[in-house]
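Incident log, support desk, overnight shift.

02:14 A customer reports that sequence design results differ from what the structure should imply. Their input is reproduced verbatim below. On-call engineer (initials T.W.) acknowledged and began investigating.
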């Protein structure tokens, strides 16, 4: 089970304030934080050297050097080790991102060079103007810029190669450069233990009063213990247990000390049924969140949209996301079912922002997808609702082709319906009006050919969705999502490109 962290500002009761307007506990934290910072920096520097680290001997070294106890030293080591590990992971992630960008650039360069070479080859033919296929990169000229699209594409390829070279050199540097870890000042960290009373030996909290064991280096100034009235962590759903380990982290932010406690939360009673009895699927887009409730038979029973506003500041955007998550929690509680969403990884897509167009880049960069899913899982799990993650392959296509016109759903609601059915383990077979022509295109035979049906039986259903996806991308009738609502005969959409390709093959064979 994971951990939770509750944070609150350190109270300043009037009876505890001194002549400086500070409590004794705040004075102690101001005096202990420089000691903690020096010890943590020394520990982090030693960990970054790569030498063999012996926790026991280093704990003894910190005790004798800084005049702190073993428990205080454990907090220093844990904090420094966490910062160093995070820095190493960040370096790995940075290198992985840059490598992904280089790979995306090289892929774009290969496709662009092939497109340019095919265009040159096309126009080198004598009767190119009589061709029925056309050119993938037709030669055109801009009067405004006095330049051709070919020359502009060559210039883009040149700049992409320069960018790839710069990123390659940056990766080489990052692989050999020393890792730097930053440890902020004005903080103290104490590791808890489930075997100790109140979950911690150094910092003990009984639900109202917080009592901190002063290290030996500061006993002459503050005594053996310092304490303050902390009060309780007020939460609508309080999962803070009375027993168990409690790790405390004190830090100063915006001129005020804050107290954070990390703990293993109390299990929440499950308030939903198994996904086999029904499920809510959600599909998130920058402008809205579409949801659809599916019953135990896989039929649509309810659907809707939660509107979202773009271009908000981080604080307002978080508030908007929390409100959307609370609405989904209300729906899950009403239908007593889990919530299913796509298991998305936007790190790969964000590596390709420079090759995906400005509008697509702004859409991805301007909306906090990962923030939404983190808050969704946190809020729903806090209420005993499970969030199920499914493979996102072809969910939007399935929703548009099968359910958008049938139920009159928006594109995100149709995708949410497909997601909910996938979470329930239901298969999404491709419609029969499309399957026959896709399979006939494989072997060039009739849609009712027995060989075609055997190919269909031996393939996974996603192979047909993949084939349909490629076919639809080449069609002008399905360039936007609104066109899916008007398609009544898929034979005209699927079969015509295949007939055209067969006619081109016969023409080439006759020549």
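02:41 Re-run completed on a clean worker. Output:
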């Amino acid at each position: 089970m994971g951990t939770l962290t509750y944070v609150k500002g350190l109270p300043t009761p009037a009876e505890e304030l001194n002549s400086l307007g500070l409590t004794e506990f705040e004075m102690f934290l101001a005096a202990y934080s420089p000691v903690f910072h020096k010890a943590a920096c020394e520990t982090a520097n030693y960990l970054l050297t790569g030498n063999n680290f012996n926790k026991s001997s280093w704990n003894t070294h910190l005790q004798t050097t800084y005049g702190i106890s073993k428990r205080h030293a454990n907090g220093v080591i844990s904090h420094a080790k966490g910062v160093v590990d995070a820095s190493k992971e960040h370096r790995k992630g940075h290198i992985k991102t840059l490598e992904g960008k280089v790979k995306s650039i090289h892929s774009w360069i290969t496709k662009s060079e092939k497109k340019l070479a095919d265009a040159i080859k096309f126009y080198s033919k004598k009767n190119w103007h009589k061709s029925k296929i056309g050119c993938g990169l037709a030669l055109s000229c801009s009067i405004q810029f006095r330049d051709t699209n070919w020359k502009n594409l060559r210039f883009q390829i040149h700049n992409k190669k320069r960018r790839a070279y710069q990123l390659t050199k940056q990766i080489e540097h990052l692989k050999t450069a020393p890792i730097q870890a930053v440890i902020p000042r004005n903080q103290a960290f104490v590791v808890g233990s489930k075997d100790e009373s109140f979950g911690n030996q150094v910092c003990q909290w009984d639900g109202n009063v917080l009592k901190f064991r002063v290290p030996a280096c500061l006993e002459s100034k503050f005594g053996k213990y310092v304490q303050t009235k902390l009060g309780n962590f007020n939460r609508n759903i309080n999962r803070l247990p009375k027993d168990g380990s409690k790790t405390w982290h004190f830090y100063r932010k915006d001129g005020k000390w804050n107290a954070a406690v990390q703990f293993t939360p109390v299990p929440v009673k499950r308030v939903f049924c198994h996904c086999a009895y029904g499920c809510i699927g959600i599909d998130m887009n920058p402008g809205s969140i579409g949801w659809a409730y599916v019953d135990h038979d896989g039929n649509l029973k309810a659907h809707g949209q939660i509107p979202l506003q773009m271009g908000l500041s981080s604080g307002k955007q978080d508030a908007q996301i929390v409100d959307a998550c609370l609405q989904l929690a209300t729906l899950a509680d009403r239908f007593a079912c889990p919530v299913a969403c796509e298991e998305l990884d936007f790190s790969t897509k964000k590596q390709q922002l420079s090759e995906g167009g400005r509008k697509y880049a702004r859409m991805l960069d301007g909306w906090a997808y990962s923030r939404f899913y983190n808050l969704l899982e946190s809020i729903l799990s806090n209420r005993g609702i499970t969030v199920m993650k499914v493979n996102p392959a072809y969910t939007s296509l399935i929703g548009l082709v099968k359910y958008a016109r049938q139920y009159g759903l928006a594109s995100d609601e149709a995708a949410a319906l497909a997601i909910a059915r996938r979470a329930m383990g239901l298969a999404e077979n491709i419609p029969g009006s499309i399957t026959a022509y896709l399979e006939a295109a494989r072997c060039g035979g009739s849609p009712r050919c027995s060989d075609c049906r055997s190919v269909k039986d031996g393939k996974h259903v996603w192979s047909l969705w993949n084939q349909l996806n490629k076919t639809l991308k080449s069609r002008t009738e399905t360039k936007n999502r609104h066109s899916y609502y008007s398609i009544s005969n898929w034979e005209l959409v699927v079969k015509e490109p295949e007939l055209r390709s067969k006619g081109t093959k016969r023409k080439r064979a006759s020549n």
